[in-house]
Amino acid sequence: MKRSGLHRLTHYFGLIFGAAILYVLLDFMIDLRPANVHSSYRFNIEGLVLDQARILRQDNLSVLVIKRSIETINRLKQGTVNLQDPESRRSHQPVFATNLLRSMKAEYFISYAIGTDFGCTLEVFEHSLGESCGKARYDFAGRALKGENKFQNLAIPDYTFTNNFNTLTIRP
């Protein structure tokens, strides 16, 4: 009697395990997300305050936007001593952002709002950024500051602005 109960329990466990594997395989093979998740994202960036980071969210996308002052731009151009990858050679960014400020326009810094150490959301500090669940710190160009661990600079999305810099469009 115990043997048949154990056999039945093993059989049910096998069915549940097989169903879980089938679900995971189908989830990876078939993309069931809505079509608008893959389209461009538009963010209104009017009214940004100089040197204050702002995290914008839409659907499953969070981006960090900073409108930098002339003083901040000059500080970022000069302060490359405490950076892990000052030239952004190991970073993920579009071609237009392969410069010292890692941006299309010097006044604006745009990145994904996810750290590169543990992949957690970003926190804003005075003149720097940090990962909420780790020790990763970044400057206002998204460059990783030297610390105990090595990690990459913040990832930069492919983005454009409208002519008047009121709308930011990101293509993931």
Q: What do you see in this structure?
A:
The protein has helices spanning 2-29, 70-78, and strands at 41-44, 54-58, 61-67, 108-112, 122-125, 128-131, 137-138, 158-161, 167-171. By secondary structure, it is α+β, with helices and mostly antiparallel strands. The strands form three sheets. It has a three-stranded antiparallel β-sheet with strand order 1-9-8, with no helix packed on it. A three-stranded antiparallel β-sheet has the order 2-3-4, with no helix packed on it. It is elongated. 22% of the residues are buried.
The order of strands across the largest sheet is 1-9-8
Instruction: Report the β-strand fraction as a percent range.
Output: 15-25%
**Oligomeric form of this entry?**
single chain
Which structural category do the helix and sheet elements fall into? alpha+beta
Mean pLDDT: 88
Query: What overall geometry do the principal axes of the alpha carbons give?
Result: elongated
